Amino acid sequence: MTTPLLDVQHLTVAFEGARSSLTAVDDVSLQIAPGETLGLVGESGSGKSVTAFAILRLLPPPGRVAGGRILFEGRDLLALPEREMRAIRGARISLIFQEPMTALNPVMRIGDQIAEALTVHGMADRRGAWEHAVELLDAVHIPDARRRVRDYPHQLSGGMRQRVMIAIALACRPPLVIADEPTTALDVTIQAQVLDLMRELRSRYNLALLLITHDFGVIAEMADRVAVMHRGVLVEQGPVRQILRAPSHEYTQRLLAAVPGTGGPSGPPRRSMVEGRGDGRT
After folding, report:
1. Beta strands in the chain (DSSP E)
2. SS3 assignment, position 222
3. Are strands 208-213 and 233-239 parallel, antiparallel or unpaired?
């Protein structure tokens, strides 16, 4: 069996209040192999994003990891000094945020923001980083990249801003990318384009991807395996095709029934949903 790139073991995350404690993630275990895409699906508030921020040790206070281990490339991230953790964020594990307009610096050119990801980790000098920023914009299919690299975020469309976020995430060629609802803020046509781009880049760079979403349609298109999260607990996980054809947990069944064309009240399952990934991998 392939050694996992990421191995989350019995992760528990709590938010401590003055008089009470809320467990947002409860005894979650999951693994991602090199080059694999794991879809983490569930409704808003189920603990998906909290799990991602715990992996990166970016939990907002008063959140804390109350138990478990997070092994990445054989090292327990929870045991690392903050200096070593900073070297991993962006360079070895990167994050694509849901809303690029809040993640990007509005008063900084997009080329400088991409270049900063490289210079901070000592992977290029300023001049080399700028040239690499142009190459990355070209790789994410932003036209006239050498001109657009000087633009500010407000000068780009929502789809282009999300492509910039993907370029920043890929700047240091990390083996693992966490994508937190990367298409939620986009219209349907742009969503499809961004998913196509992520599929292309995943294959080109052999990326492992933790794809966080509430949309089973995105999971069917993108993921090798899926883990279903409900109220902080993983209720079901397995190969995408297996879960789509025969979900065993009631919550998974309800999520699938809510997707138009998957066998709920609106009709029989769509062929693409039942077959799983649209790119030939299962």
Report:
1. 6-16, 21-32, 37-41, 63-72, 75-76, 93-96, 176-180, 208-213, 225-230, 233-239
2. helix
3. unpaired
Proportion of the chain in helix, strand, coil states, percent, rounded to 5: 40, 25, 35
- 169-202: per-residue pLDDT in tens? 999 999 999 999 998 878 888 889 999 999 999 9
CB 223, CB 39: distance < 8 Å: yes
Look at residue 124 and give its three-state secondary structure: coil
Q: Are strands 21-32 and 63-72 parallel, antiparallel or unpaired?
A: unpaired
- Residue extent(s) of CATH 3.40.50.300 domains in the chain: 1-83+176-282
What CATH number belongs to 1-83+176-282? 3.40.50.300
Q: How far apart are CA 22 and CA 45, in angstroms?
A: 12
Q: What is the pTM of this model?
A: 0.89
- CA atoms of 48 and 228, how far apart (whole Å): 9
Q: Which two tokens stand for residue 241?
A: 């095709």
45: Cβ–Cβ under 8 A, 6 or more apart, which residues?
A: none
Q: How far apart are CA 142 and CA 218, in angstroms?
A: 23
CB 129 within 8 A of CB 115: yes
Taking residue 109's Cβ as centre, other Cβ atoms within 10 Å add up to 18
Chain segment 89-132, per-residue pLDDT in tens: 999 999 998 888 889 999 999 999 999 999 999 999 989 999 99
Query: Is the four-CA dihedral 26, 35, 219, 201 of positive or negative sign?
Result: positive
Would you call the peptide bond into 62 cis, given omega within 30 degrees of 0 as the criterion?
yes
Q: Is the pLDDT of residue 269 over 70?
A: no
Return the structure tokens found at 176.
């693992």
Q: Which of 33-47, 241-255, 260-274 has the lowest mean pLDDT?
A: 260-274
